Amino acid sequence: MNESRTYSSNNNGLGEQPRLVLEVEDLYxxxxxxxxxxxxxxxxxxxxxxxxxxxxxxxSGCGKSVTALSLLKLVPMPPxxxxxGTVSLHTDDTTVDVTALAPxxxxxxxxxxRQISMIFQEPMRSLHPMFSIGDQIVEILLQHFDMNxxxxxxxxxxxxxxVGLPEPARVVHEFPHQLSGGxxxxxMIAIALACEPQLLIADEPTTALDVTIQAQxxxxxxxxxxxxxxxxxxITHDMGVVAEIADRVIVMYLGEIVEAASVDQLFTxxxxxxxxxxxxxxxxxTDQPKTPLHSLSGAVPELLDLPAGCVFVExxxxxxxxxxxxxxxxxxxxxxxxxxCWLYTExxxxxxx
Length: 353
Hints:
Blueprint: E1 20-33, E2 36-49, E3 53-57, H1 64-71, E4 80-90, E5 95-97, H2 106-111, E6 116-119, H3 123-126, H4 133-144, H5 149-162, H6 168-171, H7 181-193, E7 199-203, H8 211-228, E8 231-236, H9 239-245, E9 248-253, E10 256-262, H10 263-268, H11 273-280, E11 330-334, E12 337-340
Parallel strand pairs: 3-8, 3-9, 6-7, 7-8
Antiparallel strand pairs: 1-2, 1-4, 4-5, 9-10, 10-12, 11-12
Helix pairs in contact: 4-5, 5-7, 7-8
């Protein structure tokens, strides 16, 4: 089965299928070390269409961010390397295999920021402390558009106003340390949207923010996505964020996709034991005080010492009922809902809870 087809968006009966923006097929990424190469992304395939928000969830270290960095050839090489697979970017008139481009080539620089933009986890580490906010927005505008510095600075003010920053004409001359965390994150969004890209990758965009500011940033992303018709790839470990804004969800564990579904399917009918465990670990407002939270048993294996078969076998509550030494394939259990688990094969249907 061609797994790249399994994560395509549906049109929900609304007519014509949205235009395909990005297609990732059988992506493998590893990192070298003194003990050998560690496989961080292991055969990942998915598609993103125009106007949709794809959520990618999983524990820290499951390969979410490495997958995102690979789409822009930002994985440091060495020690990282893309061992296989393709990342196809579809524009109006052409298709580009991003994995075939050199990391410092003119072709990939033309894609970064212009076709695919990324909001990184920590704005204070992504914004240069020695340059004003305006300078950092102007830089990307001058790189991709034929405009002078004054035109670019005026555009920067407009962008800051668009992302809801007060007094943008003043903020454009300030430095990152003069802004709050929420304001810095809005600046990062302004930079990411400066060239009106096709795809916006948001890597944990609300991690370091308090709950109120998180809600504002998510609301802003939703509004801008709807206004501009962007495709958005949202990376997070927060299932609540996914439930709030995503259209489709991919669940990753140890570099593999273990479940992929629409957001409604995932939350009403989670199928993989790992997904079920993640959802049970979320506090419920109806629980009585001091109700213990559910936790997944065991620990995440080291990437250099992965199980030979199913990657979740050492933590799976049903491991005694399925063949842990054989690797499961992705199975479509209902239209648009895919799971990589032996429990959903005919052979082991009797063991399914």
